[in-house]
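This part of the workshop introduces the protein records we will be handling. Getting from the letters to the C-alpha cells is the skill we practise here. The record below serves as our worked example for the rest of this section.

…
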Amino acid sequence: MDMTTAAASQYQSNGVVCPLILRNGLFTTAAVDNIDHNPSSNTAQDAFHGTGISLFQNREEEFDGVQRERDILPCLQPGISNKKIPQLPESYTNLTPVTARKKDPAVPMTTGRLTSDSSLLYAALEDEKKWQKSTQRLVRQEVQSIDDPIAWAAFHSSAHAPRNFDVTITSLLPLFPDDSKSGAMICHSMDVIKRAVERLNPGQVPVLTVDQPLFAIAKIIQWNWPESYGEDKFVVLLSSPFFIDIYAIVSHLPTVKASIR
C-alpha cells in the first residue's frame, strides 16, 4: 500500500508515469501489446482485456545511466499516514477519441537510397554451411555426446565466446482497461511513451515495437498525423514485443542507434 501510494504520488508530482527503476541517459525502447486474462475458474465473475506498455533500457559498459532519486513527498515523510492512493495523472488515464482522416492515406516517399550489404548474406550462408557439415559429421558418429552441438541454436552459440551482459532494465507501466486494437489506444500509448522517453533520455526519438495488427494501426496513425506521430517522430518496429531482442538490434546496428538518439 505504501509503495503504491509513493509511486502514484511520484507520478502525480512529475506529471508523467515513469517508474524509478528506469535510469536517466539510457537508450529507451517501448513495447505495446494486448493483455488478456480469461479465468477458467467456475466462480470467476469477470475477465480482463486491456493494454500493457513496457519500457526497456539497454545498459552499456561505458555508461550505466544515472539513477533517479525519489522526491520527498508528504506521503513519504515520517509520521504521516495516508491510506488514500493518489490518482494517476490525467494525461495517462484519459484517452482522447481518435478518428482517422483517411483509412487509406498516402504512404510517404522514401528519401535517400536503400542499399544492402550483400557480404552479410554470404557470411550468413557460410555459417549455415558450417552448421550443416558439423551436423552431418556428428550424426554419422557411432557414439554421440550430450554436449554435441547438433541443434542449430546450440551450434551457433558454441561458435561464440561467452560474454557477460548487463541485464536489461524493464518496467511494465500501469495497465489500461481499453482494447489495444483501436486508434485511440495506440495514439495514447505513443503519447505516454514519448513523455516517458523525453524525461529519461531527452532528444531521443521514441522506438515502439508492436505485433502485426497493432503495427498496421500505428502506421495508419503515422501517415494520418505526420506532424505528431510521423516517421521522423517515432520509429515503429514490427515484431512481437515478448520475443523481440531490442538489445541485439541496437547493439549490432550502431548506425540505427545513433540516428534515433
